[in-house]
Automatic annotation (TrEMBL):
Residues 3-240 form the NAD-dependent epimerase/dehydratase domain. This is NAD-dependent epimerase/dehydratase domain-containing protein. It comes from the Eukaryota. Pfam families: Epimerase. The keyword Oxidoreductase applies. It comes from Penstemon davidsonii. InterPro entries: Epimerase_deHydtase, NAD(P)-bd_dom_sf, NAD(P)_dehydrat-like. Keywords: NADP, Oxidoreductase.
Length: 318
C-alpha cells in the first residue's frame, strides 16, 4: 500500500515515515528541498527507505504542488505547516502556508480517487484557546475550538494559523466528501530523528541552557513517537473519525523543572519562575478519544529523559 506524507523531514513526520516503512508501506514523502542533506539524509537512512521511500519536492504555497505526491496513494498524512512563534509577518510566514497549504493539499486529494483517507496534523492549539478560563475543574475535549478572534487579540499567530487551517480543512473535506481525521497533539517532545532543533524540543533545551527562570505557564505534553503512531492508528482504524487530542500530561513548567532536577541532579536548572504572580492554574485535556483507537502514552518523565538524551546525542546540548 502506498501513502503520502507532507513535510516529511519534520520532527513528527520523520517518526511517522519511520513507522510507516516499518509497517511495510511504500511512502511518498514531500520535502521542500530534496537536495538538502539536513532534511533528507535521516530519512534515506531509515530501514526500508531504499526500497520503499520516494522523496518528492513540494511547497505548501504552490498550487498543484501536491498532485504528484498524492497520486496513487490510499492515505495522505498532511503534517507540513510552519511551527515557530517569532515573526514580523504572521500572514505570510504562518497563516498562508498553514491555511492555503492545507487547502492546497486537500484539493490534490479531492481530485485523486485512490485517496481513501486524509489524516491532518492539527494541534491542541486549535482546540483550547477561546478565552474560557482554563482552571483545574475544566476538561478540554474535542468539542472545544480555539477562537480566531481571541488569537488575534492576543497575537497568538501560530495558534491562529492552526485554528484557521483546521476549520477550513473540515469545511473543504465536507464539501468534497473527503474522509478526514484530525490529530490534535499537545507540545511534542522525545527523541529527534532529524539533525536540527525543532520548536517544541527547544522548549526543553531552553530550560537546560542556562536559563535563570522558567515560564509561568501550563503546557500539555506528548511523546513524538506516540503522536506519530496515533496518525497510523487514525488511518488504519476504519471507524476513526473527527478529532483526536493526543495529550499525555498537562503540567506547569515548574513540574517539568522538578522532573529534570530528579533525572539530572547536576544540571544547572532555572531556580525561579519568570514572574512573581501565583502559578498559572493547571487544567485537564481529555485523551479518551485517542485511547479509544489504541493510542498509548509514554510518561512525561520518560519523554523528558528521551529528549535530553537525544539533544546530547545530536550535539544540540553539551
Ligand atoms: P517541524 O518544524 O519539525 O516540521 C514542519 C514541517 O513543515 C517541515 O517539514 C517543514 O519543511 C514543513 N513546512 C513548513 N513550511 C512549509 C512550506 N511552505 N512548504 C512545504 N513544507 C513546509 O515541526 P513539527 O514536526 O513539530 O510539526 C509538524 C506538524 O505538527 C505541524 O503541522 C505542527 O503545526 C503540528 N504540531 C506540532 C506540535 C509540536 O509540539 N511539535 C504540536 C502540535 C501540532 P522544511 O523542513 O522544509 O522547513
Amino acid at each position: 500500500k502506498t501513502v503520502a506524507v507532507t513535510g516529511a523531514s519534520g520532527y513528527i513526520a520523520s517518526w511517522l515515515v519511520k513507522f510507516l516503512l516499518e509497517k511495510g508501506y511504500t511512502v511518498k514523502a514531500s520535502v521542500r528541498d530534496p537536495s538538502d542533506p539536513n532534511k533528507t539524509q535521516h530519512l534515506l537512512e531509515l530501514d526500508g527507505a531504499k526500497e520503499r521511500l520516494h522523496l518528492i519536492k513540494a511547497d505548501l504555497l504552490e498550487e498543484g504542488s501536491f498532485d504528484a505526491l498524492v497520486d496513487g496513494c490510499v492515505g495522505v498524512f498532511h503534517t507540513a505547516s510552519p511551527f515557530f512563534f517569532e515573526t514580523n509577518n504572521p500572514q505570510a510566514d504562518l497563516i498562508d502556508p498553514a491555511l492555503k497549504g492545507t487547502l492546497n493539499v486537500l484539493a490534490s486529494c479531492a481530485k485523486t480517487p485512490s485517496v481513501k483517507r486524509v489524516v491532518l496534523t492539527s494541534s491542541a492549539a486549535a482546540v483550547a484557546y477561546n478565552g474560557k478560563p482554563l482552571t483545574p475543574e475544566v476538561v478540554v475535549d474535542e468539542t472545544w475550538w480555539s477562537s480566531a478572534d481571541f488569537c488575534r487579540e492576543n497575537q497568538m499567530w501560530y495558534v491562529l494559523s492552526k485554528t484557521l487551517a483546521e476549520e477550513a480543512a473540515w469545511k473543504f473535506a465536507k464539501e468534497k466528501g473527503i474522509d478526514m481525521v484530525a490529530i490534535n497533539p499537545a507540545l511534542v517532545i522525545g527523541p529527534l530523528l532529524q539533525p536540527t532543533l525543532n520548536t517544541s524540543s527547544a522548549a526543553i533545551l531552553d530550560l537546560i541552557n542556562g536559563a535563570e527562570t522558567f515560564p509561568n505557564s501550563i503546557f500539555a505534553w506528548i511523546n513524538v513517537q506516540d503522536v506519530a503512531y496515533a496518525h497510523i492508528l487514525a488511518f488504519e482504524n476504519t471507524s476513526a473519525n473527527g478529532r483526536y487530542l493526543t495529550v499525555d500530561e498537562t503540567v506547569h513548567y515548574a513540574e517539568v523543572v522538578n522532573i529534570l532536577r530528579e533525572l539530572y541532579p547536576t544540571l544547572k536548572l532555572p531556580e525561579k519562575c519568570a514572574d512573581d504572580k501565583p502559578y498559572a492554574p493547571t487544567f485537564n485535556i481529555s485523551s479518551e478519544r485517542a485511547k479509544s483507537i489504541g493510542v498509548e502514552f509514554t510518561s512525561l518523565k520518560q519523554s523528558i529523559k528521551e529528549t535530553i538524551e537525544s539533544l546530547k546525542e545530536k550535539k544540540l546540548f553539551k
